Amino acid sequence: MAHYSISDLEQLSGVKAHTIRIWEQRYNLLKPSRTTTNIRTYGEADLRRLLNVATLCSRGQRISQVVRLSEEECQAAALALCNEVKPADGPRLNALLAATLDLDEPGLHRLFDQAVEELGTEETLLRLGYPLLQRLAVSWKAGSLSLAQERLVGQLLRQELMASADALPLIPLSQADAPRWLLFLPEGEWQELSLLFMNYALRARGRQVLYLGPNLPLADVVAAAQAFKPNVLATVLTTAPARNQLKAFADELRAQCPKAAVVLFGSMAVQATGLPDGCLPLACLHEFRDLIPFVNQPVEGELIEK
């Protein structure tokens, strides 16, 4: 059974630790146990209870009324909010998290499919999928969630992105006015979800995309670029190359592919200094999506804005 600190509850539910303490003391909302050093710890039942209560309170219900509901009534009311025509992101995110905690794959798919039907693939991923994955990643690193729960969500997002991209028409190479993007992950990099989102977002906007996937040596990237002649090379940097080798990697990429601009995505790229001209670091997928309409045709490795 998983055990959570109050900071874990705050991270996963979005409810401030101060508020959780008040609810616990005033309404006996949660039933923590104590360690031998008198530190409160919370179980999965406490987290599920808090997620449901937070969902109801976020939609205007008073905590004094919500705490009177039984566990079954509280959960049913919270799930009902997720099926409204235009629900806030919070209730749906909490419902997705609750299904993840239970390793309820059918329930997770059902909730995700409902969101995609209403919001579309991109908005669902940006507003629900990736925030959910970020919450899980933080808690897994802290040791309060299992790797299986994070992997379950990651695999769901991967399946959704691949299926959605496959459903889009391919842009023929003969269509000269469609900007070309080459997507890859450098050698030693395997975190593919952000790259899959880029692939879908570009294809959905009529761009030509050559998707080469993870762990690609630089020599193979260069060979592919010479044949495909992309406007832009885009990659994601989370673990590779090493931070002290990032500038050298970018310099070599620009030297070998001087006619293509380079988009470097991720926290490592944003923190890098001394990147060569023609390299654009991006911190979030919203920024990437907003960039797409402005990339037209290449002029010696610069991004062209209309």
Automatic annotation (TrEMBL):
The keyword Transcription applies. Signal peptide: none annotated. PROSITE patterns: B12_BINDING (PS51332), HTH_MERR_2 (PS50937). Residues 3-51 form the HTH merR-type domain. InterPro entries: Cbl-bd_cap, Cobalamin-bd, Cobalamin-bd_sf, DNA-bd_dom_put_sf, MerR-type_HTH_dom, MerR_fam, Meth_synthase_dom. Keywords: DNA-binding, Repressor, Transcription, Transcription regulation. Residues 178-306 form the B12-binding domain. It comes from the Bacteria. This is MerR family transcriptional regulator. It comes from Hymenobacter ginsengisoli.
